[in-house]
Amino acid sequence: MSEFLNGGNMKNIKDALDALLIKYKVEFLVFFGIFILVFSSKKMYSVSASKGNVEQWVNITNQMFYGGSDFLFSYGPLYWLVGGSSSQYSVVSYWAAILFISVISAAFWSLIVKLVHNARAYMYLGLAFFLFFSTVAIPSAFYLLPFALIVYFEFSKEKPMALGARGMIALGVLVGFLFYVRFFYGLVGVAVFGSYFFIRLFSEKKISGLLCFVAATLVSYVFVGLVIFHDAASIVNYLIVNKNLSFGNSVDMTLDVVNSKRSLIAVFLVVAVLNIYLLLRRRALLLTVNVLLLLLFKLGFSRTDHYLSYFVMPVAAMALVMVFDKSRIGRVLFLMVMVALYYLAANPSFPGAPTKDSLLPGTDFSVEYEGRMQSIYADFKLDESFLARIGKSTIDVYPYNNEYAFANKLNYAHRPSFQNYMTLTPTLDSMNKVFFESSERPRFVLWTGGLNCIGVDCNVFDGFDNKYSLNEDPLTVNAILMNYHVVGISKGVGGVPLALMEANEEAREDQVETTLSETAMTFDKWYKVPKVAGGVVKVIPNFELTLYAQLKNLLFRGNILKIRYKLVSGDVREYRLNVLSSKSGVWITPLLDNFEFSGDVVDSIMFVSDSSRYFRPELKAKWIGMPLSSVHNKPLALSVVSTSVEGALKSAVVSCEGNLDLMNGVSPAPTKLLESNFLKVQGWLAYSTKNGMLFDKTYLTLTDEKGKKLFILAKGEPRADVGAVFKNTVLNAAGFKSLMDLSALSGDYKLGMGGLHGSEFFNCSQFEIPLSVER
After folding, report:
1. Is the same domain home to 659 and 682?
2. What are the tens digits of pLDDT across the range 569-592?
3. Distance from first CA to last CA of the chain, Å, rounded?
4. Prediction pTM value
């Protein structure tokens, strides 16, 4: 090693490194693999680690970083290095802990795997790992690393490895440091190295190495303590505290339980079998293993609820020593130890003791499959009236949430493509259509709210990816609405509405469609929706993809297509649209939002694309009408129109405090309305913002060319922004909205605003917006 360190040039250093890598190839490969695995996957979070228990120590393990107090406890002042803290002190301490855990885990397993590889004992390591470890970052590695080292010294070569003074000093420095991670870790290090090298004195006849180890341990313990502690006296006090904690815990922290005789017999068998092997094959480890077994037995069974983590698991790792020399007797004895340890792990040593049974499945298969699925989705319970009506009849759940079928043990008979946001193509949609039109269709369909429907008053057709669920698989929707009728409406998880639909007596395979008109369209332009007497209006757009789009679909992904609906009320709604399924028809009006299948009337639509290169700019679209008796329009909430203001005895013209904010969704401006247009106006009006007073009623006015006025009574609308601006919450009620049907009017008008206060009507002088209604 000294020649390596004192090499005269870089070539010598490189050659020495290459030689080391070749000589310890397996060790380096395992170390690197485990290190990367742990380092890349280990995360530490800030948690309330002492909440609900009395473990106060976990909140002050970082005391070396702040204040003047020293942390004196069995968990050492460096215990944060293994994650023992409610929260890491800093980003530096966080990554130091991750690094420490990764290095210790990698070092431990590189030694063990090398010996397993030499002995070709892979199956035995796999057995122990499966039964007891389950992860490479095992806590036992922090105190079993010294044992792994001496086993490596003993088995890696034909003769035990001899360590010089430097090696013994290095081991002593490591042990002195480990005392401050956790006192027990250092104690195990002293016991393991001390006992092992003591036994080797009788064969090597040299005490200098052992003396170097003891001296290095003492010096390391003192030096690290001086660095960590604020008060030098804490170095001694740390010993005193741990001596007393250990004794006190063993006497007064015991549980009031009795360990079963069988578990103690299992412990005896483990100890006995290990000793038999050591007596027969490896006497040099006899003292070390028994000292370690004694420490682990006391730690694990002293309070006795810790025996799994402090006896069973670490002893399972120690037992691997029996397979390292390739002897048949060692491997047989190893299996005997595994059986005894498995019994200890799988059977409680006392009533209520924790267990670990790796052979036990994570699922309780004593419960029938239907019962297990029902318990998984217990919150998806249906109303009893639904269950009584469904009985044992077949049922499908649309568009998704088949959890209801399993939670209620329903006779689930699903369509071919069973979740609608993955239907996507007309071919799959057609398969579902055929299913619902066939004699094999289920008796019932449970229609659930869309993914974005998350409350009692939600739009049940707000679907996945901000799509309108009636456009996801339009052929399937047609088939359901044509062949089923609603027999009940209820609430599901989170209060989301559900509709139970029952099949009509006869299945219908053909839907009567009426072509209303054809329109040449472009993107980003509004198009009027044709009227139809009853039923639904759909549009079938012929979107043509460019060559760029076809290549993009093949090599990358498609672009986003959206549709905007302008309601007759003036509101605009936008949904993402499926490109492929749109050729089967896009639902237009009424725009349904509930399971009574009523919806707002749509005045016009617009197609919007996020790319000008994906679709050809012009397209042809066919409007069709479909008679569906279950679907109907919502009545419009039109404002009341009159030729006078009820209750007004006098009037005045004043400059009002208020504003006309929006006309049909845009800022007020001279406006032209075509036939059948509706006018929606929104704004706010106050009698006095200074005094926080409102008008009794708010009106809009339409004045024709002859000066004749119409008064339109507006409805209140919350306007918290107005209250915030004037710092008076009374003005939150100053908002208004009004929807006017101007289909009976024609000519030029001026839109104004006014308010009734008491018996006086105030006309607002500043509002005279030109409005032209053309016929």
Report:
1. yes
2. 878 899 999 999 999 999 999 999
3. 101
4. 0.74
Average pLDDT, the chain: 93
Least Cα distance to 734 among 749, 704, 755, 759 occurs for: 755
pLDDT tens string 29-81: 999 999 999 999 999 999 999 988 889 999 999 999 998 899 999 999 999 99
By 3-state DSSP, what share of the chain in percent is helix, strand and coil, each rounded to 5? Answer: 45, 20, 35
CA distance 604 to 623: 12
Token code pair at residue 301: 């069974």
**Same domain for 192 and 222?**
yes
Domain containing residue 718: 641-773
CATH number at residue 731: 2.60.40.10
pLDDT on residue 674? 63
Domain count, the chain: 4
Q: Is residue 170 part of a domain?
A: yes
Cβ 101 vs Cβ 109: under 8 Å: no
Q: Which of 606, 633, 660 is the last residue of a domain?
A: 633
Residue 707 above 60 pLDDT?
yes
Count of alpha carbons within 13 angstroms of residue 434, beta-carbon side: 8
pLDDT at residue 7 in the model: 46
Kind of pairing between the strands at 678-686 and 657-663: antiparallel
Residue 691 lies in a domain: yes
Phi-psi region of 476 (alpha: psi -120 to 50; beta: other; left: phi over 0): alpha
Q: Are 629 and 533 in contact (CB under 8 A)?
A: no
Residue 665, sorted as left (phi over 0), alpha (psi -120 to 50) or beta, turns out to be: left
Domain match, 174 and 223 both = yes
The CA-atom distances, in angstroms, between 418 and each of 1, 31, 155, 406, 438 are 68, 48, 60, 14, 16
Please give the C-alpha separations between residue 413 and each of 446, 450, 477, in angstroms, as whole numbers: 11, 20, 17
CA distance linking residue 490 with residue 375, whole number of Å:
21
Q: State how far the Cα of 300 lies from the Cα of 313, in Å rounded to an integer.
A: 10
Please check the confidence at residue 119 and state whether its pLDDT lies above 80: yes
Quick one: pLDDT band at residue 675, thresholds 50, 70, 90?
low
Closest CA to 752 of 674, 618, 659: 659
Among 682, 700, 703, which residue's Cα sits nearest to residue 641? 700
Taking alpha carbons only, the member of 556, 544, 554, 563 closest to residue 613 is 544
With a cut of 80, say whether residue 317 has pLDDT above it.
yes
- Measured over the CA atoms of residue 22, residue 27, residue 33 and residue 38, the dihedral's sign is negative
Verify that 698 and 629 share a domain, yes or no: no
**Same domain assignment for residues 483 and 551:** no
Tens-place pLDDT, residues 621-651? 999 999 998 999 998 888 999 999 999 999 9
Say which CATH number the domain at 572 has. Answer: 2.60.120
Does 653 lie in the same domain as 592?
A: no
pLDDT surpassing 80 at residue 15: no
pLDDT band at residue 374 using 50, 70 and 90 as cut-offs: very high
pLDDT in the model for residue 129: 96
Q: Establish if 616 belongs to a structural domain.
A: yes
Half-sphere exposure of 372 (CA within 13 A, CB side): 8
Domain final residue, candidates 449, 476, 503: 503
Strands 747-757 and 769-773: antiparallel
Q: How much of the chain, in percent, has pLDDT values that exceed 90?
A: 83
Inside any domain, residue 675: yes
C-alpha 366: how far from chain center: 30
